[in-house]
Please model this.
Amino acid sequence: MSGWNEKDVPDQRGRVAVVTGANSGLGYVTARELARKGARVVLACRSEVRGSEAADRIVAEVPGAEAEFARLDLGDLASVREFAATFPYERLDLLVNNAGVMAMPYGTTVDGFETHFGVNHLGHFALTGLLLPALLDAPAARIVTLSSFMHVLANIDIDDLNSERRYSRWTAYSRSKTANLLFTHELTRRLAAAGSGVVAAASHPGYAATNLQTAAPQAEGRKGTERLMEIGNRVFAQPAEAGALPSLYAATAPDVHPDSFFGPRIAMWRGAPAPSWRAPWTLNDTMGQRLWAASEELTGVVYGQLKA
Model:
């Protein structure tokens, strides 16, 4: 694994991949490199303009690439359902749950969920469940969900999943990233119980320079914070090309085991992908099952093929 980079991604010809939030940053790099190796990639993005432009860029950068845009708003369960209902392929080999929001002011999704929990966790929970039949039909499918090293800052509060009692933007973000890991953990358990060969894994990019850091302060007009984030991206962060490597590894490397978690090798911050430390609460079976039950109830998406 030492020194592993995008050139080491195995041949993906004949495989179909969906990457959420693929119009920029980590998602774009992930989609581009999968397409470079021959996968047919669906860029699942909220903005039709940015998503279509990203697909066109991939086709321009990678001769022979197969990349297409499909609209997906993870903050709107009706959009998630429409995406899954109109998915044009009978099987899905790879789902990369990449999209997310970070450190947003308090707000809610279309369906009334706190934004971080609703977009980062519930949207992807619903999407994965709705696409599960296509994943189960693929011979060696994988589901990769992007978490963050900042999950270590907060466990979920199962009695206050929508942060209604007290809100802190960084706590809400960290809880949503813990939820991503608990989801992967419980999904792994259920896939194994069903005798499925689908592998669920997780990854994080360390500190990678993307627009995730500047999106919230820019939207709020906090110029000083936006400037500090831009400086941090230039001075301390690794480029998006490096930040995407853990996701690409989790998605394609032959030695990935169920419920693995990969991140940058050096202090979970930067460098080649490697197994990453995770907080013990992300491996809690009871909490994973409780979050799963709550997620099914909140989204209305039940994984019928995977029994408890």
Remarks:
- The two ends are 34 Å apart (CA to CA).
- DSSP finds ten helices and eight strands in the chain.
- The CA atoms of residues 95 and 128 lie 8 Å apart.
- Residues 212-220, 222-236 have pLDDT under 50 and may be disordered.
